[in-house]
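Here is an idea for our session: we take a single protein and study its fold together. To get us started, please write out a protein record for me. Start from the sequence, derive the backbone structure tokens from it, and show both lines together. Go ahead whenever you are ready, and we will take it from there:
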Amino acid sequence: MAKVVNLRQARKATLRSEAKTQADTNAVKHGRTKAQRVLEAAQAKQASDRLSQLKFEDE
């Protein structure tokens, strides 16, 4: 005898897998790793600190 399939659950499972696939492709296309975000933040802080060191202070 054939296996009984709940069509509602099958439809939702299909939609979930399609959404997961789309999310993965978007993450590859637009996302950055945590290491990249940390590196960029450190570089921005270093540049900001260097800029503040080079400012002249008027008395």
User: Anything to note?
Assistant: The CA atoms of residues 8 and 14 lie 10 Å apart. Residues 7-30 form the longest helix (24 residues).
